[in-house]
Amino acid sequence: LRELVSRLHQRGVQVFLVSGGFQSIVEHVALQLNIPTANVFANRLKFYFNGEYAGFDETQPTAESGGKGKVITHLKEQFHFKKVVMIGDGATDMEACPPADCFIGFGGNVIRKQVKEKAKWYITHFDELLKELEE
C-alpha cells in the first residue's frame, strides 16, 4: 500500500482515506502513508471533560448509512475531480460506486464473498494495481 500511494502521489493523484473507523486511528495510518490528515474522513470519538467516553460524532458523514458516497460526492464537487476510484474491502465501500466512477474490491486482509462476487475488478494484493500503473 505504501508503494501504491507513493506512486499515485508521484503522478499528482490525491489520495483520500474514507473509513467507518475512528479518525484518531485512520489519521495515524494516513501519516504513515504521507496522506495529509485533511484527506481523512472517518468517525470521531467524543469524550466528556473528565475523560469519559461520550460516544461518537454523529454529524460526520461516515457515521451514517451511505456516508462514504456522500464524502465522494463532496470531494467531486469541491475538487472537480473527473474520475474517482474507490478501493475497499466491504459492502459500504462498494455501495459508494456511484458516486465513485469505479470500485476495486480488495481482499488482501479479508475476503468478503459479496464484494468478491459483485466487484468488476477484485484484487488481493496491491502489486496488481502497481503493475497496472506501470503500463
TrEMBL record:
<dbReference type="GO" id="GO:0005737">
    <property type="term" value="C:cytoplasm"/>
</dbReference>
<dbReference type="InterPro" id="IPR036412">
    <property type="entry name" value="HAD-like_sf"/>
</dbReference>
<dbReference type="InterPro" id="IPR050582">
    <property type="entry name" value="HAD-like_SerB"/>
</dbReference>
<keyword id="KW-0718">Serine biosynthesis</keyword>
<keyword id="KW-0479">Metal-binding</keyword>
<keyword id="KW-0378">Hydrolase</keyword>
<comment type="pathway">
    <text>Amino-acid biosynthesis; L-serine biosynthesis; L-serine from 3-phospho-D-glycerate: step 3/3.</text>
</comment>
<dbReference type="GO" id="GO:0036424">
    <property type="term" value="F:L-phosphoserine phosphatase activity"/>
</dbReference>
<keyword id="KW-0028">Amino-acid biosynthesis</keyword>
<dbReference type="GO" id="GO:0000287">
    <property type="term" value="F:magnesium ion binding"/>
</dbReference>
<dbReference type="Pfam" id="PF00702">
    <property type="entry name" value="Hydrolase"/>
</dbReference>
<keyword id="KW-0460">Magnesium</keyword>
<protein>
    <recommendedName>
        <fullName>Phosphoserine phosphatase</fullName>
        <ecNumber>3.1.3.3</ecNumber>
    </recommendedName>
</protein>
<dbReference type="InterPro" id="IPR023214">
    <property type="entry name" value="HAD_sf"/>
</dbReference>
<dbReference type="GO" id="GO:0006564">
    <property type="term" value="P:L-serine biosynthetic process"/>
</dbReference>
